[in-house]
Amino acid sequence: MSRFFSEKYRHLTPYTPGEQPKNRRFVKLNTNESPYSPSPLAREYAAKAAESLQLYCDPDCTALTEKLAALYGIEKENILFTNGSDEALNFAFMAFCDDAHPAVFPDITYGFYPVFAQINNLPYREIPLRDDFTVDVDDYCGVNKTVFIANPNAPTGIALPLSEIERIVISNPDNIVVVDEAYVDFGAESAVSLITKYDNLIVTQTFSKSRSLAGGRLGMALACAEVIRDLNTVKYSTNPYNVNSVTQAAGLGALTDDEYFRHNCAEIMENRAYLTDELSHLGFITTDSSTTFVFAKHPDLDGGQLYLDLKERGVLIRHFTLDRIRDYNRITVGTREQLDILLKHIKDILGGTP
Question: Residue 88 sits in which domain range?
Fold first, then answer.
């Protein structure tokens, strides 16, 4: 770092995104991107919007907001669109955490949570998952802090039932509870139905996974109107034009093409079951995933070495170095062809084939 870097950030450990290789073609199963391109309507709408890029984008995302409100059966005032759900999460840290309202979240979860807390100079506490990597809901009931729960969790893939999420929300009436639903479309229960029932609940979602727009950077926060106004205060104090015109148009096309969205989600869930079964036959232990990835370890393989061996063979998966999960790898669910390539290489590694 330079000698000019602010002292307040000198000990900041930034989030490490998954590898995006540029010098070699890989079977890329490391960043939970959809294996399917955006819907034809999303691409068509985006191309049309690109013709007017000399103009500023709509800061209110009006068309997009109206479409989502109709689709979800909520009011426009319950919605804030953001530059990926990461921005929505960061707004929540900024708006609802301080010395009197520290953040709390699991010790094994989305790696951006501690980064958001640190960069905003906010106190936080990490609560250990159980030995089986499940969230102990009792740890969050009446905790009287701002709660962040990824549901399903990442990188474990395990989901809590809606009744347990509601129990956390009910027990913390004077604190915001943020439910990060990046992977909710792949088998978990959404808490969106609760946002008009509880004024302390924020649900964040993303178009990156189920709607194939990871490169577009589009997410949203869903909450009661008063809380959305709070988040808008932060937004309009930082970046009013946070969602560009092309992304807004692509998002509108993706929401309009609901059949394409549902088909791709079903395909990914089917491929996830296939990958889980095949890995189990090879001796792997996996968690019960409700996401676009499988979290797996093999009793005879070092997790880090498996990652390196597969990378050498042209297949990228994600390995984490935290002590509790260093034997595991997170494997994105790709197409059947991609998964068969992965499985062939794993069989070769297990069999000692160079």
Answer: 40-257
How does strand 219-223 pair with strand 103-106?
Answer: unpaired
Which residues, 6 or more positions from 73, have their beta carbon under 8 angstroms from its beta carbon? none
Nearest C-alpha neighbor of 108 from the set 178, 155, 141: 155
| Edge-first strand listing for the sheet containing 293-297 | 285-286, 293-297, 329-332, 318-319
Tokens representing 102 are: 């520290």
219 and 333 assigned to the same domain: no
The H-or-E segment that residue 42 falls in is: helix 40-49
Q: pLDDT by residue (tens digit) across 248-299?
A: 999 999 999 999 999 999 999 999 999 999 999 999 999 999 999 999 999 9
Distance from the first to the final alpha carbon of the chain: 41
Are residues 197 and 75 part of one domain? yes
Do both 170 and 292 map to the same domain? no
Longest dimension (CA), the chain: 60
Cβ–Cβ under 8 Å, residues 78 and 224: yes
**Sign of the alpha-carbon torsion through 15, 17, 21, 22:** negative
* This model's pTM is above 0.70: yes
Q: What is the CA radius of gyration of the chain?
A: 20
Residue 254 sits at the vertex; the CA angle it makes with 250 and 257, to the nearest 5 degrees, is 135
Tokens 């990652």, located at residue: 307
pLDDT digits (tens, 9 = 90+) for 28-65: 999 999 999 999 999 999 999 999 999 999 999 999 99
The phi and psi torsions of 143 (rounded to 5 degrees) equal: -75, -20
